[in-house]
Amino acid sequence: MPLWIPLLFCLGTTNQVGQVLMNTDYRPLLAIITGLFEVGVAGWAVLGPGRRNIVRPTVALLLLLAGYQFAEVFVCMNTSEIRFARVAFMDIIFLPPTGLWLLAQLGAQDYPKIRRAAGTTIGLAGLLATWVWVDPTFVTRSVCEVILARYVNPTPLYPIYAAFYMLGLGAMLIGASLGMAHREDPLDRQNMADIQIGTILFVVPGIFFQILFPKYIGTSPSMMCHFAAFLGIALWHMLVRERRWALAHSQANAMRSVTSHLLAR
Question: pLDDT tens, 178-224?
Fold first, then answer.
């Protein structure tokens, strides 16, 4: 889903984009800049070196983060159009399972349970995403304010969605902590530290901001996804480390190959 949201944004009419930019109640530039940064980092990662089993889930995480940003811009272009609000919720429900997928790749040999948990949660996220799309009461209204979108979710089953999302983020934090404590590979431990720090920096501020300022209750998806820019930065830092490791590993292999060839002569 997030793969085609940026394309739709690019294909949007000039009038639509101008309308949202001139909207006095909502300023989309933060969402647009954040989304473009995340898409740019994802493209940079795809085109560069690095362990593919690590790069793929990291790119997926970045596209999910960007997907919400662009979906929110579309939501605030026309708040009476609920479809893009549904897309936003469908997008972010895959964030925790994809994070677990990344952790499973970083510590797959030591933690097979994380891999099973990632597969299970991805399946459950697919079911929840389907429910979001078909349930007419999941989201019925959107209100955009400055840089945040507030959603009305009258369905009594919404707490199940929220619990799955928050428990998934908690599992990401626990999985990263276990990996850092027991994984011997220093590269993987540093990568897990980036995931942990990035997750903390978008979950904790998003929760406490709403506790300190109750008027922002109801903006949790929007607020947390804006704070998730910190997770995007942490993933970029992780990808830089992966690229440096891959280049150093490639150079070392080349030197060994040259040495072996010279000795053979």
Answer: 888 888 888 989 999 999 999 999 899 888 888 888 877 778 888 88
Give the integer Cα–Cα distance in Å for 216 and 148. Answer: 9
> What is the Cα–Cα distance from 224 to 209, expressed in whole angstroms?
10
- First-to-final CA distance of the chain: 56
Yes or no: say if 250 and 49 are a contact pair by the CB < 8 Å rule. Answer: yes
- What's the mean pLDDT in 134-145? 89
148 in Cβ contact with 218 (< 8 Å): no
SS3 content of the chain, % helix, strand, coil (to 5): 75, 5, 20
SS3 assignment for 55-103: HHHHHHHHHHHHHHHHHHHHHHHCCCCCHHHHHHHHHHCCHHHHHHHHH
Q: Which domain holds residue 121?
A: 5-264
State the total domains in the chain.
1
pLDDT: which is higher, 206 or 55: 55
Output phi, psi for 21, to 5 deg: -70, -30
d(CA 143, CA 146): 10
Report the interhelical angle of 158-182 vs 95-106 (nearest 10°): 20
| Three-class DSSP category at 149 | strand
Q: Are 90 and 1 spatial neighbours (Cβ–Cβ below 8 Å)?
A: yes
Asked if pLDDT for residue 246 goes beyond 80, the answer is yes
For position 38, which CATH number holds?
Answer: 1.20.1070
Query: Structure tokens of 19?
Result: 């309308």
